[in-house]
Amino acid sequence: MRTKTLLQLLLLPALVTSIILGCSNSEKKEAKNEEKNIKEEQTNPQTKERATSGVKEEGKIVVAYVNGRPIYKEDLGGRSLQDAIDLEILYEEGLRRGLDKELEDKIENFKKRLIVTTLQREILKNVKVNPSEITDKEIEEYYNQNKDKYRYLVIKEIVTDDKSIAEEIQKRALQGEDFEKIASEYSQAGKNVTVRDVRNPRKYSNVFSGNEIGSISQIIQEGNEFKILKLVNVREIPLSRAKQAIKYNLVARKKADAIHEFAEKVKKEHNIKVEILENPEEGE
């Protein structure tokens, strides 16, 4: 019994040492794992974003992150936080699907319009044009130079889906035959020919340069239809009724002139080369 107890006493230091060493190794292992986790967390972009951002970024309060991108309290604009998070998630999905590449042209066009509009506003700050400053003489001159804009045309059209029939109709119309009579004859023969009033006569204001009642147009093709137009009536809009609209047209024209003058100045100062390959004002 004494021998056994003595043996236990002799083995006790070794046992304690073993336990201590085991604990030490375990703690070292845990410490290493913890260190590894901290390093991985620090190299994670999302964590780095939070670590560098803190509670505030650029003077704004961060209320959430979506894949490391901050959502600011000041940018919520009355929306709920969940709505803002949903939008960020949808944006992320759109990028994943490559929508940013598909929309590059539209984004570029929008950016161009935004830049140009901003610059135009700056230019027009120094252009003081008020409708009350437009003189009666300017209004009258504009009216006389643009009388075609201040007339209301009453137009009828005869329509068919057959070009050869349209050619026949135009010849008969030029000889003075009535549209209704022509259409009736073709309809009785089983041909698809109709007469109707033109709902948007301004669309064809350039077809009839003069005001001669009864004028007949050339054949106009629109899709699968062939049309011949007839000027039925012309109603002149008097200067007294057009005066106010002309004032605003003149104001707009003066603003456009100011923008054009600025563009010409920039072109000369920076030697900007302009090449016009085709004159859009010429006919096709």
Description:
By secondary structure, the chain is of the alpha+beta class. Helix content is 55%, strand content 15%. It is built from 9 helices and 7 strands. It has helices at residues 2-43, 45-53, 81-96, 99-102, 104-124, 136-145, 163-174, 179-188, 239-269; strands spanning 56-57, 60-66, 69-72, 151-160, 193-197, 220-222, 225-236. The protein has a 4-stranded antiparallel beta sheet. Strands 1-2-3 form a 3-stranded antiparallel beta sheet. A hairpin with a 2-residue loop joins strand 1 (56-57) and strand 2 (60-66). It starts with a helix and ends in a 15-residue tail after the last helix. The model is unreliable at 1-12, 14-21 and 34-54 (pLDDT under 50).
**Structural class given helices, strands, pairing?**
alpha+beta
What sequence of helices (H) and strands (E) makes up the elements?
Answer: HHEEEHHHHEHHEEEH
- Widest sheet: strand ordering: 5-4-7-6
Average pLDDT taken over every residue: 81
Structural shape: extended
* Oligomeric form: single chain
Please work out how many helical segments DSSP would assign: 9
Q: What fraction of residues sit in β-strands? A: 15-25%
Low-confidence stretches: 1-12, 14-21, 34-54
Helix content: 40-55%
What number of structural domains do the residues give? 3
